[in-house]
Amino acid sequence: MKFTWPFKKQPDYPEFFMTYLSHFKQKNKGEIYNTRFIAFDTETTGFNRKEDRVLSIGAVAIIGKTITVNDTLELYLKQDVFNAETVEIHGLMKSGSEEKISELEAIKLFLDYIKDAILIAHHAGFDKAMINNMLARHGLGKLKNRFIDTGVMYNKSLHIIYKDNTKPYTLDFLCKELNVQPIDRHTATGDALITALVFLKILGRLGKRKKLSWGYLLNK
Predict the structure, then answer these.
(1) Which of 21, 69, 114, 155 has the most CB atoms within 10 Å of its CB?
(2) What is the mean pLDDT of residues 7-22?
(3) Shortest CA distance to 74 belongs to which of 183, 219, 190?
(4) 131 near 100, Cβ under 8 Å?
(5) Per-residue pLDDT for 67 more than 60?
(6) Please, which pLDDT band fits residue 105 given cuts at 50, 70 and 90?
(7) DSSP bridge pairs for 101
(8) What is d(CA 134, CA 98) in angstroms, rounded to the nearest whole number?
(9) Which residues pair with 149 in a beta bridge?
(10) If pLDDT is split at 50, 70 and 90, which confidence band does 90 have?
(11) CA-to-CA distance for 132 and 137, rounded, in angstroms?
């Protein structure tokens, strides 16, 4: 009688995704201030994580408390799903003038850009889910990057008497509280830059109070 071990077969991923996965073979987190962070944002056709689609992705890199302006990403995707009601928010028309690429090409460029960086987003669960849904549509695995949510991070920075774990701090609220100019609001690249500035402000606030650790910063 032949016995077969019940091991799960590894998916046969394409080369670009295997290259992405290869960045995670070493688990050393390194020093916080020497780590490459990526603040990113997605503009979407709506807020339904399963039905809606990503229209654009914007991202900026942060190393050593500095936003590296020569290390950015801006992608516009061809729109198979279109919601005219959300155009008023993000301003992206189905037949707009921006050069658009396929969803698969956007995935390749995004993964090549982020590699194993720590990803920063505001209300990160939504952006993470939208990217993971993109990956799933093409038979790929989920993002392996660790995440920091600026809303959660801001709440951690407050004195205990002001903390509110149920309050969904908006990006506009954080801009006002932290004196960050909301330039190009509701564009993916603009919101990514704003998120990066908010992150640095909160990081500076936390760094003055305690010795920062990865366990404290990263989303559980």
Answers:
(1) 114
(2) 86
(3) 190
(4) no
(5) yes
(6) very high
(7) 77
(8) 20
(9) 121
(10) very low
(11) 9
Q: Cα–chain-centroid distance for residue 218? A: 13
pLDDT at 180 over 90: yes
**Closest by Cα among 134, 154, 162 to 204:** 154
Kindly state the tokens that stand for 68. 């590296």
Q: How far is CA 61 from CA 65, 193, 217, in A?
A: 10, 9, 17
Q: Give the pLDDT score at 98.
A: 76
In this predicted structure, the answer to whether residue 29 has a pLDDT above a threshold of 80 is no
- Give the Cα separation of 45 and 65 in Å (integer): 33
CA distance 163 to 185: 26
Reading across the β-sheet that carries 147-149, which strands appear in turn?
66-76, 54-63, 37-44, 118-121, 147-149
Higher pLDDT, 78 or 98: 78
Pairing between β-strand 118-121 and β-strand 147-149 as defined by DSSP bridges: parallel
Helix H, strand E, coil C: the string for 147-212 is EEEHHHHHHHHCCCCCCCCCCCCCHHHHHHHHCCCCCCCCCHHHHHHHHHHHHHHHHHHHHHHCCC
What is the C-alpha separation between 153 and 151, in angstroms, rounded?
A: 5
| Tens-place pLDDT, residues 185-213 | 878 999 999 999 999 999 998 887 767 88
Q: Which of 186, 218, 211, 181 is nearest to 198 (CA)?
A: 181
Q: Of 185, 139, 202, which is closest to residue 41 (Cα–Cα)?
A: 185
